[in-house]
Amino acid sequence: MSTAAAYAVSGPDGPFEKVTIERRDLGPHDVSIDVKYAGICHSDIHTARNEWGGAKYPCVPGHEIAGIVAAVGSAVTRHGVGDRVGVGCMVDSCGRCAPCLDGNEQYCERGAVMTYNTAVDETVQAGGVTLGGYSTQIVVTENFVLAIPEGIGLDVAAPLLCAGITTYSPLRHWNAGPGKQVAIIGMGGLGHVGVRIAAALGAEVTVLSQSLRKREDGLRFGASGYYATADRQTFKDLRNRFDLIINTVSADLPLDNYLKLLKVDGTLVALGLPENPASIRPYLLASYRRSLSGSMIGGIAETQEMLNFCAKHGIGAEIELISADEIDAAYDRVVASDVQYRFVIDAGTI
Ligand code: NAP
Ligand code: ZN
Q: Which ranges carry the Enoyl reductase (ER) domain (predicted)?
């Protein structure tokens, strides 16, 4: 066992407090990482505040992790001491089911082991629950450790481990590219990275944000259109416009209004995971053969592909770097849509 400093909540009302946690001894395939930066994803907030139910306390969130390899187990071949590496939302999966064999570990039929809040054997994590990246150190099996290419700063790379792959995977799956009209709903952490990636893929990108407040940034990220969803005219102007709409909004939305913006055979993809069920009018699917789908992060190989793509295209997250004692305040700002565009914790302050 080794010990690490971490920030944890002991209940849904917080606050975050500094704690000491244990990390397992290195197994032959394990990599020990000195965490340098950890992004704050809205999923961390949903979990820490128990908005999805099932939160296990004390909870150490954090699945946008960038750091440096400190030590490797005897059989590790993929990473070496001193390497720049990242860890995303998963730290293991069964490796044997059809989705795992297809490289879709996130859809593991036995349930992927998520980076935090997943029940595991005490030998994996003391306390029996995975603890995430708001900590100084983490131990992860080598196949779930990603290489962060030279050319992206570790601080702006950290959010790519969730926000990057979560938008990249559906954009690729639904063939966003030249000639495709893509809309991104919500320009927060996921949304702003999604705009950059969709534009780099060659798609024509439109942002659907609550207001025009962040319009200049959206155009700078690569969007060619930017509309306020508070303006009813938006829904008239953009009717039947899009091949693909990516919904990154963390709150309930009137989905019918957005389905009407899809052209024939268009797809609306749910990425945002509000706690409440959604309702739609089936007629809006039938009338233009539209699809409503969803997507969960992405597989490990695809995550590496995304990191390489982002390095090639100079894509990182736009971040506000904070110290660990500012996490509670940062959560409140994320919930108020007041983030530009991802909070990242400097792990040196933990
Ligand atoms: P975020 O930074 O808070 O961004 C969400 C954006 O949604 C906000 O910036 C805001 O954009 C918009 N929004 C928020 N409240 C709204 C409301 N009441 N009405 C309309 N728009 C609203 O969150 P995030 O980290 O990007 O995560 C977004 C969601 O994706 C969360 O639910 C998270 O749990 C989920 N998620 C899913 C996956 C997956 O694998 N599917 C992975 C990661 C995260 P504007 O200011 O531009 O309107
Ligand atoms: Zn996330």
A: 14-350
Cα distances (Å, whole numbers) of residue 298 to 91, 106, 224, 262, 281:
13, 6, 27, 24, 29
In testing the pocket of ligand 1, which one of 45, 234, 337 has its CB within 8 Å of the most ligand atoms?
A: 337
Q: Strand, coil or helix: what is 191?
A: helix
C-alpha of residue 271 to centroid of ligand 1, in Å? 8
3-state secondary structure of 163: helix
Q: Please give the number of the atom of ligand 1 that sits closest to the Cα of 294.
A: 41
At residue 1, the pLDDT reads: 86
25 & 144 share domain: yes
pLDDT for 257? 98
Q: Whose CA is nearest to atom 7 of ligand 1?
A: 249
Q: Which domain holds residue 270?
A: 164-294
167-200: string of b/e by CB count within 10 Å (b at 16+)?
Answer: bbbbbbebebeeebbbbbbbbbbbbbbbbbbbbb
pLDDT the model gives residue 147: 98
Amino acid at 339: V
Best probe residue, ligand 1, of 248, 255, 320 (max atoms within 8 Å of C-beta): 248
Residue 302 resides in a domain? no
d(CA 20, CA 276) in angstroms, rounded, equals 35
Ligand 1 pocket check: which of 114, 190, 216, 275 to mutate, most ligand atoms within 8 Å of Cβ? Answer: 190
pLDDT of 260-286, one tens digit each?
999 999 999 999 999 899 999 999 999
Residue spans of the chain under pLDDT 70: none
Classify 19 as helix, strand or coil: strand
CA of 232 to the centre of ligand 2 (A): 31
The H or E element that residue 155 is part of is helix 154-157
Domain count, the chain: 2
Q: How many CB atoms lie within 10 A of CB 340?
A: 15
Q: Is the CB of 187 under 6 A from ligand 1?
A: yes
Do 259 and 287 share a structural domain? yes
33 & 12 share domain: yes
Of the candidates 206, 213, 215, which has an alpha carbon nearest to the alpha carbon of residue 185?
A: 206
